[in-house]
Amino acid sequence: PLQFDYSNSSGNRPVLKLNPYSWTKIANIIFLDAPVGTGFSYATTWTAYDNSDTSSAAQTYEFLRKWLMAHPKFLTNPLYITGDSYSGVIVPIIVKEVYDGNEAGREPPMNLKGYVLGNPVTCEVKDISQRIPYGHKTALISDELYEATKTDCNGDYVNVDPTNGACLTDLEMVSICLEKIYLAQILEPMCSFLSPNHTKLKWSRSILQENIINVVSMPLQSRPWCRNYNYLYSYIWANDRNVQEALHIREGTKPEWDRCNESLSYTKDVLNSVVYHRYLSKTSLRALIYSGDHDLAIPYIGTLDWIRSLNLTLLGPWAPWFVNGQVAGYSILYSKNNKYDLTYTTIKGGGHTAPEYKPKECFSMVDRWFSYYPL
Protein backbone atom coordinates (compact mmCIF):
# COMPACT_ATOMS: atom_id res chain seq x y z
CA PRO A 1 0.00 0.00 0.00
CA LEU A 2 3.01 2.31 0.42
CA GLN A 3 5.94 3.23 -1.79
CA PHE A 4 8.96 5.48 -1.55
CA ASP A 5 8.50 9.06 -2.67
CA TYR A 6 11.86 9.31 -4.44
CA SER A 7 11.48 12.91 -5.57
CA ASN A 8 11.06 14.09 -1.97
CA SER A 9 13.52 11.69 -0.32
CA SER A 10 17.10 12.66 0.39
CA GLY A 11 20.02 11.60 2.53
CA ASN A 12 19.02 9.10 5.19
CA ARG A 13 15.37 10.14 5.36
CA PRO A 14 13.20 8.17 2.92
CA VAL A 15 9.72 9.60 2.47
CA LEU A 16 6.72 7.29 1.96
CA LYS A 17 3.53 7.91 0.03
CA LEU A 18 0.39 5.93 -0.74
CA ASN A 19 0.57 3.65 -3.77
CA PRO A 20 -2.55 4.24 -5.89
CA TYR A 21 -1.97 0.96 -7.74
CA SER A 22 -1.36 -1.36 -4.81
CA TRP A 23 -2.78 -4.84 -5.28
CA THR A 24 -3.95 -4.65 -1.64
CA LYS A 25 -6.83 -2.55 -2.97
CA ILE A 26 -8.33 -5.62 -4.61
CA ALA A 27 -7.09 -8.52 -2.48
CA ASN A 28 -6.07 -9.55 1.02
CA ILE A 29 -2.35 -10.31 0.60
CA ILE A 30 0.10 -12.24 2.76
CA PHE A 31 3.62 -11.03 1.97
CA LEU A 32 6.00 -13.84 2.85
CA ASP A 33 9.79 -13.68 3.20
CA ALA A 34 10.95 -17.04 1.84
CA PRO A 35 13.17 -19.01 1.87
CA VAL A 36 14.23 -18.61 5.47
CA GLY A 37 16.98 -16.03 5.76
CA THR A 38 15.48 -13.62 3.25
CA GLY A 39 13.96 -10.34 4.36
CA PHE A 40 13.24 -10.43 8.09
CA SER A 41 12.81 -14.21 8.26
CA TYR A 42 15.15 -16.20 10.47
CA ALA A 43 15.74 -19.64 11.97
CA THR A 44 16.69 -20.63 15.49
CA THR A 45 19.26 -23.23 14.39
CA TRP A 46 22.01 -23.08 11.77
CA THR A 47 20.83 -26.28 10.10
CA ALA A 48 17.42 -24.73 9.52
CA TYR A 49 19.04 -22.24 7.17
CA ASP A 50 19.96 -25.05 4.75
CA ASN A 51 17.27 -24.76 2.14
CA SER A 52 16.29 -25.67 -1.41
CA ASP A 53 13.55 -25.08 -3.96
CA THR A 54 11.50 -28.06 -2.80
CA SER A 55 12.04 -27.57 0.93
CA SER A 56 11.20 -23.87 0.68
CA ALA A 57 7.95 -24.72 -1.13
CA ALA A 58 7.09 -27.31 1.52
CA GLN A 59 7.75 -24.80 4.30
CA THR A 60 5.53 -22.23 2.60
CA TYR A 61 2.72 -24.78 2.33
CA GLU A 62 3.03 -25.57 6.04
CA PHE A 63 3.01 -21.85 6.81
CA LEU A 64 -0.23 -21.43 4.83
CA ARG A 65 -1.85 -24.35 6.64
CA LYS A 66 -0.96 -22.98 10.06
CA TRP A 67 -1.89 -19.40 9.16
CA LEU A 68 -5.32 -20.40 7.83
CA MET A 69 -6.01 -22.59 10.85
CA ALA A 70 -5.16 -19.60 13.03
CA HIS A 71 -7.34 -17.29 10.90
CA PRO A 72 -10.27 -19.46 9.79
CA LYS A 73 -12.38 -16.52 8.61
CA PHE A 74 -10.20 -16.42 5.48
CA LEU A 75 -10.70 -20.10 4.59
CA THR A 76 -13.56 -19.41 2.17
CA ASN A 77 -11.68 -16.65 0.35
CA PRO A 78 -10.44 -17.56 -3.13
CA LEU A 79 -6.73 -18.37 -2.82
CA TYR A 80 -4.18 -17.39 -5.45
CA ILE A 81 -0.45 -18.03 -5.04
CA THR A 82 1.59 -15.26 -6.66
CA GLY A 83 5.22 -14.31 -7.18
CA ASP A 84 7.70 -12.99 -9.68
CA SER A 85 11.25 -13.59 -10.94
CA TYR A 86 12.77 -16.64 -9.18
CA SER A 87 9.34 -17.38 -7.73
CA GLY A 88 8.64 -18.80 -11.16
CA VAL A 89 10.44 -21.90 -9.89
CA ILE A 90 8.91 -21.96 -6.39
CA VAL A 91 5.27 -20.94 -6.89
CA PRO A 92 4.25 -23.86 -9.16
CA ILE A 93 5.68 -26.25 -6.55
CA ILE A 94 3.67 -24.56 -3.78
CA VAL A 95 0.51 -24.66 -5.88
CA LYS A 96 1.01 -28.39 -6.45
CA GLU A 97 1.53 -28.90 -2.69
CA VAL A 98 -1.72 -27.07 -1.92
CA TYR A 99 -3.65 -28.88 -4.65
CA ASP A 100 -2.35 -32.30 -3.60
CA GLY A 101 -3.08 -31.48 0.05
CA ASN A 102 -6.69 -30.68 -0.81
CA GLU A 103 -7.00 -33.88 -2.83
CA ALA A 104 -5.60 -35.89 0.10
CA GLY A 105 -8.02 -34.26 2.54
CA ARG A 106 -5.40 -32.42 4.60
CA GLU A 107 -6.69 -29.78 6.96
CA PRO A 108 -7.58 -27.10 6.46
CA PRO A 109 -9.12 -27.30 2.98
CA MET A 110 -7.92 -24.32 0.96
CA ASN A 111 -10.08 -22.57 -1.61
CA LEU A 112 -7.33 -22.70 -4.22
CA LYS A 113 -8.28 -21.01 -7.49
CA GLY A 114 -5.01 -20.46 -9.33
CA TYR A 115 -1.67 -18.73 -9.50
CA VAL A 116 -0.03 -15.60 -10.91
CA LEU A 117 3.59 -15.33 -12.10
CA GLY A 118 5.44 -12.27 -13.35
CA ASN A 119 8.67 -12.34 -15.37
CA PRO A 120 9.11 -15.92 -14.14
CA VAL A 121 12.34 -17.88 -14.06
CA THR A 122 11.44 -21.37 -15.25
CA CYS A 123 14.58 -23.07 -16.53
CA GLU A 124 17.62 -20.90 -15.92
CA VAL A 125 19.64 -22.34 -18.81
CA LYS A 126 16.83 -21.86 -21.33
CA ASP A 127 15.81 -18.48 -19.95
CA ILE A 128 19.33 -17.11 -20.30
CA SER A 129 19.79 -18.66 -23.74
CA GLN A 130 16.77 -16.68 -24.92
CA ARG A 131 18.64 -13.42 -24.32
CA ILE A 132 20.44 -13.81 -27.63
CA PRO A 133 17.35 -14.19 -29.87
CA TYR A 134 15.68 -11.45 -27.82
CA GLY A 135 18.69 -9.19 -28.32
CA HIS A 136 18.40 -9.86 -32.03
CA LYS A 137 14.67 -9.07 -32.06
CA THR A 138 15.31 -5.75 -30.32
CA ALA A 139 18.21 -4.69 -32.61
CA LEU A 140 20.89 -5.12 -29.93
CA ILE A 141 22.54 -7.90 -31.95
CA SER A 142 23.01 -7.73 -35.71
CA ASP A 143 21.50 -10.23 -38.15
CA GLU A 144 24.95 -11.44 -39.12
CA LEU A 145 26.17 -11.97 -35.54
CA TYR A 146 22.93 -13.67 -34.52
CA GLU A 147 22.98 -16.10 -37.44
CA ALA A 148 26.66 -16.89 -36.90
CA THR A 149 26.16 -17.45 -33.17
CA LYS A 150 23.11 -19.62 -33.69
CA THR A 151 25.00 -21.77 -36.20
CA ASP A 152 28.35 -21.96 -34.44
CA CYS A 153 26.84 -22.64 -30.98
CA ASN A 154 24.09 -24.97 -32.24
CA GLY A 155 21.54 -22.92 -30.33
CA ASP A 156 23.18 -23.60 -26.93
CA TYR A 157 24.63 -20.41 -25.49
CA VAL A 158 25.18 -21.50 -21.88
CA ASN A 159 26.68 -25.01 -21.82
CA VAL A 160 29.28 -24.24 -24.44
CA ASP A 161 31.92 -26.73 -25.56
CA PRO A 162 35.22 -25.11 -24.47
CA THR A 163 36.87 -26.41 -27.66
CA ASN A 164 34.30 -24.64 -29.86
CA GLY A 165 36.41 -21.58 -30.68
CA ALA A 166 33.96 -20.12 -33.19
CA CYS A 167 31.11 -20.19 -30.66
CA LEU A 168 33.25 -18.64 -27.93
CA THR A 169 34.35 -15.86 -30.28
CA ASP A 170 30.73 -15.17 -31.24
CA LEU A 171 29.67 -15.04 -27.59
CA GLU A 172 32.43 -12.56 -26.80
CA MET A 173 31.03 -10.31 -29.52
CA VAL A 174 27.51 -10.80 -28.14
CA SER A 175 28.80 -9.82 -24.70
CA ILE A 176 30.29 -6.62 -26.11
CA CYS A 177 26.89 -5.79 -27.64
CA LEU A 178 24.98 -6.41 -24.40
CA GLU A 179 27.41 -5.46 -21.64
CA LYS A 180 26.25 -1.84 -21.31
CA ILE A 181 22.55 -2.74 -21.53
CA TYR A 182 20.55 -2.75 -18.31
CA LEU A 183 19.20 -6.30 -18.17
CA ALA A 184 16.11 -5.43 -16.17
CA GLN A 185 14.84 -2.86 -18.71
CA ILE A 186 16.78 -2.41 -21.92
CA LEU A 187 15.73 1.21 -22.47
CA GLU A 188 16.84 2.50 -19.07
CA PRO A 189 20.34 3.75 -18.29
CA MET A 190 22.77 1.36 -16.69
CA CYS A 191 24.49 2.57 -13.54
CA SER A 192 28.09 3.51 -14.27
CA PHE A 193 29.25 1.43 -11.31
CA LEU A 194 27.51 -1.60 -12.82
CA SER A 195 29.12 -1.30 -16.24
CA PRO A 196 31.62 -4.14 -16.71
CA ASN A 197 34.90 -4.04 -18.59
CA HIS A 198 34.25 -5.87 -21.85
CA THR A 199 37.76 -7.31 -21.83
CA LYS A 200 36.89 -9.20 -18.64
CA LEU A 201 33.28 -9.96 -19.46
CA LYS A 202 32.33 -13.57 -20.02
CA TRP A 203 28.94 -14.87 -21.08
CA SER A 204 27.71 -16.21 -17.74
CA ARG A 205 24.60 -17.55 -16.07
CA SER A 206 24.45 -14.64 -13.67
CA ILE A 207 21.09 -12.85 -14.05
CA LEU A 208 21.38 -9.63 -12.10
CA GLN A 209 24.10 -8.45 -9.76
CA GLU A 210 23.73 -5.38 -7.65
CA ASN A 211 26.46 -3.28 -6.10
CA ILE A 212 25.69 -0.65 -3.52
CA ILE A 213 27.38 2.72 -3.53
CA ASN A 214 26.90 5.70 -1.32
CA VAL A 215 24.87 7.99 -3.53
CA VAL A 216 22.06 9.05 -1.22
CA SER A 217 24.07 12.03 0.01
CA MET A 218 24.60 13.35 -3.51
CA PRO A 219 22.23 16.12 -4.69
CA LEU A 220 19.65 14.81 -7.11
CA GLN A 221 20.65 17.41 -9.69
CA SER A 222 24.30 16.31 -9.74
CA ARG A 223 23.89 12.58 -10.29
CA PRO A 224 22.61 10.77 -13.37
CA TRP A 225 19.40 8.91 -12.62
CA CYS A 226 19.69 5.15 -12.26
CA ARG A 227 16.93 2.87 -10.99
CA ASN A 228 19.31 1.04 -8.67
CA TYR A 229 19.75 4.26 -6.69
CA ASN A 230 16.09 3.99 -5.68
CA TYR A 231 16.75 0.64 -4.02
CA LEU A 232 19.11 2.26 -1.52
CA TYR A 233 16.17 3.78 0.32
CA SER A 234 14.82 0.33 1.12
CA TYR A 235 18.05 -0.44 3.01
CA ILE A 236 17.81 2.76 5.02
CA TRP A 237 14.10 2.33 5.77
CA ALA A 238 14.12 -1.40 6.61
CA ASN A 239 17.15 -1.07 8.91
CA ASP A 240 15.66 1.82 10.87
CA ARG A 241 15.01 0.73 14.48
CA ASN A 242 11.69 2.60 14.61
CA VAL A 243 10.49 0.90 11.44
CA GLN A 244 11.46 -2.53 12.76
CA GLU A 245 9.62 -1.88 16.01
CA ALA A 246 6.51 -0.83 14.07
CA LEU A 247 6.73 -4.06 12.04
CA HIS A 248 7.16 -6.10 15.26
CA ILE A 249 10.51 -7.52 14.17
CA ARG A 250 11.95 -9.55 17.03
CA GLU A 251 15.00 -7.75 18.34
CA GLY A 252 18.27 -9.55 17.74
CA THR A 253 16.93 -11.96 15.12
CA LYS A 254 18.22 -10.01 12.14
CA PRO A 255 21.42 -7.96 12.50
CA GLU A 256 20.86 -6.32 9.11
CA TRP A 257 18.13 -6.42 6.47
CA ASP A 258 19.36 -7.09 2.92
CA ARG A 259 17.34 -6.60 -0.23
CA CYS A 260 19.06 -9.63 -1.70
CA ASN A 261 20.75 -11.97 0.77
CA GLU A 262 23.44 -13.73 -1.23
CA SER A 263 24.85 -15.58 1.77
CA LEU A 264 22.03 -18.14 1.91
CA SER A 265 22.83 -21.82 2.06
CA TYR A 266 20.52 -22.71 -0.80
CA THR A 267 20.34 -25.59 -3.27
CA LYS A 268 18.59 -25.17 -6.59
CA ASP A 269 17.17 -28.68 -6.84
CA VAL A 270 14.52 -27.88 -9.44
CA LEU A 271 16.26 -27.02 -12.70
CA ASN A 272 13.06 -26.75 -14.73
CA SER A 273 9.63 -25.97 -13.27
CA VAL A 274 7.71 -26.69 -16.49
CA VAL A 275 6.95 -30.18 -15.19
CA TYR A 276 4.88 -28.58 -12.42
CA HIS A 277 2.98 -26.40 -14.88
CA ARG A 278 2.28 -29.51 -16.94
CA TYR A 279 0.92 -31.23 -13.84
CA LEU A 280 -1.25 -28.24 -12.93
CA SER A 281 -2.59 -28.02 -16.50
CA LYS A 282 -4.51 -31.23 -15.73
CA THR A 283 -6.46 -29.49 -12.96
CA SER A 284 -9.26 -26.91 -13.07
CA LEU A 285 -7.05 -24.05 -11.85
CA ARG A 286 -6.44 -20.69 -13.52
CA ALA A 287 -3.03 -19.22 -14.32
CA LEU A 288 -1.95 -15.70 -15.23
CA ILE A 289 1.59 -15.34 -16.58
CA TYR A 290 2.94 -11.93 -17.55
CA SER A 291 6.24 -10.48 -18.77
CA GLY A 292 7.64 -7.01 -19.16
CA ASP A 293 8.43 -6.89 -22.86
CA HIS A 294 11.65 -4.92 -22.25
CA ASP A 295 13.07 -7.46 -19.79
CA LEU A 296 16.35 -8.90 -21.06
CA ALA A 297 16.98 -10.89 -17.86
CA ILE A 298 14.02 -13.25 -18.47
CA PRO A 299 12.89 -12.47 -22.04
CA TYR A 300 9.22 -12.87 -22.87
CA ILE A 301 10.03 -15.12 -25.84
CA GLY A 302 11.43 -17.75 -23.49
CA THR A 303 8.29 -17.64 -21.34
CA LEU A 304 6.10 -18.03 -24.42
CA ASP A 305 8.26 -20.94 -25.53
CA TRP A 306 7.65 -23.06 -22.43
CA ILE A 307 3.95 -22.14 -22.36
CA ARG A 308 3.61 -23.47 -25.91
CA SER A 309 5.35 -26.69 -24.81
CA LEU A 310 2.37 -27.43 -22.53
CA ASN A 311 0.31 -28.28 -25.65
CA LEU A 312 -2.70 -26.27 -24.53
CA THR A 313 -5.61 -25.34 -26.76
CA LEU A 314 -5.42 -21.81 -28.16
CA LEU A 315 -8.70 -19.96 -27.48
CA GLY A 316 -7.99 -16.70 -29.24
CA PRO A 317 -5.41 -14.76 -31.22
CA TRP A 318 -2.57 -12.64 -29.90
CA ALA A 319 -4.26 -9.28 -29.35
CA PRO A 320 -3.71 -5.93 -27.64
CA TRP A 321 -5.48 -4.88 -24.46
CA PHE A 322 -5.91 -1.33 -23.25
CA VAL A 323 -5.73 0.95 -20.23
CA ASN A 324 -7.18 4.43 -20.63
CA GLY A 325 -7.39 3.89 -24.38
CA GLN A 326 -3.70 3.04 -24.76
CA VAL A 327 -2.15 -0.33 -25.55
CA ALA A 328 -0.99 -1.83 -22.24
CA GLY A 329 0.24 -5.14 -23.60
CA TYR A 330 -0.62 -8.14 -25.78
CA SER A 331 -2.39 -11.20 -24.44
CA ILE A 332 -3.27 -14.70 -25.50
CA LEU A 333 -5.55 -17.25 -23.83
CA TYR A 334 -5.07 -21.01 -23.60
CA SER A 335 -7.14 -23.81 -22.12
CA LYS A 336 -7.01 -27.56 -21.55
CA ASN A 337 -10.03 -29.84 -21.51
CA ASN A 338 -12.23 -26.80 -20.87
CA LYS A 339 -11.04 -26.79 -17.24
CA TYR A 340 -7.55 -25.35 -16.82
CA ASP A 341 -7.02 -21.95 -18.39
CA LEU A 342 -3.86 -19.91 -18.80
CA THR A 343 -3.70 -16.25 -19.75
CA TYR A 344 -0.37 -14.95 -20.95
CA THR A 345 0.29 -11.26 -21.49
CA THR A 346 3.14 -8.90 -22.11
CA ILE A 347 3.30 -5.56 -20.31
CA LYS A 348 4.27 -2.96 -22.88
CA GLY A 349 7.37 -1.08 -21.72
CA GLY A 350 7.67 -3.20 -18.60
CA GLY A 351 10.94 -4.51 -17.22
CA HIS A 352 12.03 -6.98 -14.56
CA THR A 353 9.67 -7.04 -12.85
CA ALA A 354 6.75 -5.46 -14.66
CA PRO A 355 4.74 -3.92 -11.75
CA GLU A 356 7.75 -1.81 -10.76
CA TYR A 357 7.83 -0.21 -14.20
CA LYS A 358 4.14 -0.23 -15.18
CA PRO A 359 2.11 -0.22 -11.95
CA LYS A 360 -1.10 1.16 -13.45
CA GLU A 361 -1.19 -1.37 -16.26
CA CYS A 362 -0.36 -4.31 -13.97
CA PHE A 363 -3.01 -3.21 -11.49
CA SER A 364 -5.64 -3.14 -14.24
CA MET A 365 -4.42 -6.51 -15.51
CA VAL A 366 -4.73 -8.35 -12.22
CA ASP A 367 -7.94 -6.57 -11.23
CA ARG A 368 -9.63 -7.69 -14.44
CA TRP A 369 -8.22 -11.22 -14.23
CA PHE A 370 -9.28 -11.75 -10.61
CA SER A 371 -12.76 -10.59 -11.65
CA TYR A 372 -12.86 -13.05 -14.59
CA TYR A 373 -13.01 -10.18 -17.06
CA PRO A 374 -11.07 -10.19 -20.35
CA LEU A 375 -7.92 -8.12 -20.18
What do these coordinates show?
Belongs to the peptidase S10 family. InterPro entries: AB_hydrolase_fold, Peptidase_S10, Ser_caboxypep_his_AS. This protein has helices spanning 53-70, 87-103, 124-129, 131-137, 143-152, 165-178, 227-238, 241-246, 274-280, 300-308, 354-357, 359-370, and strands spanning 2-4, 16-18, 51-52, 79-84, 112-118, 266-267, 286-292, 313-314, 319-323, 326-336, 340-347. With 375 residues, it is α/β, with parallel strands linked by helices. It folds into two domains: 2-124 and 268-371, Alpha/Beta hydrolase fold, catalytic domain (Rossmann fold); 141-178. The strands form three sheets. Strands 4, 5, 7, 8, 9, 10 and 11 form a seven-stranded mixed sheet that branches. It has a two-stranded antiparallel ribbon with strand order 1-2. The longest helix is centred in the first third of the chain and has 18 residues, at 53-70.
Rg, rounded, reads 22 Å
Rounded to the nearest angstrom, the distance between the terminal CA atoms is: 23 Å
Largest sheet: 7 strands, mixed
Name of the CATH architecture of the largest domain? 3-Layer(aba) Sandwich
Coarse shape: globular
Overall pLDDT score: 90
The helix content, as a percent range, equals 25-40%
Helix and strand element order: EEEHEHEHHHHHHEHEHEEEEHH
* CATH homologous superfamily identity of the largest domain: Alpha/Beta hydrolase fold, catalytic domain
Oligomer: single chain
Determine and state the CATH class of the largest domain: Alpha Beta
Tally of extended strands?
A: 11
